[in-house]
UniProtKB/TrEMBL annotation:
Compartment(s) of residence: Cell inner membrane
Keyword Metal-binding: no
Chief location category: membrane
Protein source organism: Cohaesibacter celericrescens
Domain ABC transporter: 4-234
Similarity comment text for this entry: Belongs to the ABC transporter superfamily.
Shown stretch of the complete protein: 1 to 238 of 359
Protein's membrane topology: Peripheral membrane protein
Keyword RNA-binding: no
Entry protein name: Sugar ABC transporter ATP-binding protein
GO cellular component, one term: ATP-binding cassette (ABC) transporter complex, substrate-binding subunit-containing
GO BP annotation list: carbohydrate transport
Source organism superkingdom: Bacteria
Length: 238
């Protein structure tokens, strides 16, 4: 059973349809990268999986259960955005534990979960700092920490590295891949960066103007692009 199953999904804003019959299956533990030019619908699709945007037609199921009308907080999903939106007045530890506090977890549970996440992300020496005292890469790790503490089934990343400089971006790619392996997590990762897609994905979904052009492994797409758009976008010779 697919962990996340997106079936014939359409999305309209007013009378404008921006997503047309999108079909994607994500297996348990798979790292799927959704790639495509700006405005093609990547964030909209992610937001529909998260429940932050309604679905105009089709179904999205998580672990076999249709979630079309399920509240975001009941979906067992965590999302990491491009703008980390950390709370500036809270410490790193408070930022990471806040969602658990809202969920009514005990102080001990929160401390444990934050401690575990800090270990995974190497954040122990920063737990008492405020976000303003951190580097871009550290803030990015805190944003991931906020997702990890909730122990979600599925992680959604929306261009999490696009605000970082090139060198840090390369470093963080490796960190996110390591995190994926360590947690055995199922990940849907959005980027408009072809290199990021090719180096990180188990499976790439190429989206163009609200339609899926091709789904395949990085090598499949490179060796056998389905059409000129994919070939041009991935940068392969065909
Ligand atoms: P991407 O993340 O790939 O850059 P988006 O998912 O943000 O693309 O946007 C896809 C399309 O939907 C774009 O044409 C965008 O203008 C449109 N769109 C996104 N959100 C809204 C909204 N809230 N209202 C109207 N149009 C929107
Ligand atoms: Mg976007």
């Amino acid at each position: 059973m697919a962990q996340v199953s997106i079936r014939d999904v359409c999305k309209s804003f007013g009378s404008v349809e921006v997503m047309h019959d999108v079909h994607v299956d994500i297996s348990d533990g798979e790292f799927v990268v959704l790639v495509g030019p700006s405005g093609c619908g990547k964030s909209t699709l992610l937001r529909m999986v998260a429940g932050l945007e309604t679905i105009s037609a089709g179904t999205i199921a998580i672990e076999g259960k249709v979630v079309n009308n399920m509240h975001p907080k009941d979906r067992n999903i965590a999302m990491v955005f491009q703008n980390y939106a950390l709370y500036p007045q809270m410490t790193v530890a408070q930022n990471m534990g806040f969602a658990l506090e809202l969920a009514g977890k005990s102080k001990a549970e929160i401390t444990n979960a934050v401690g575990d996440a800090a270990t995974i992300l190497d954040l122990h020496s920063y737990l008492d700092r405020k976000p303003g005292q951190l580097s871009g890469g550290q803030r990015q790790r805190v944003a991931m920490g906020r997702a990890i503490v909730r122990d979600p089934k599925v992680f959604l990343f929306d261009e999490p590295l696009s605000n970082l400089d090139a060198k840090l971006r390369v470093h963080m790619r490796a960190e996110i891949k390591a995190l994926h392996q360590r947690l055995g997590a199922t990940i849907l990762y959005v980027t408009h960066d072809q290199i990021e897609a090719m180096t990180m994905a188990d499976k790439i979904v190429v989206l163009n103007a609200g339609r899926v052009e091709q789904i395949g492994s990085p090598l499949d797409l490179y060796d056998r692009p389905a059409n000129r758009f994919v070939a041009g976008f991935i940068g392969s010779p065909a």
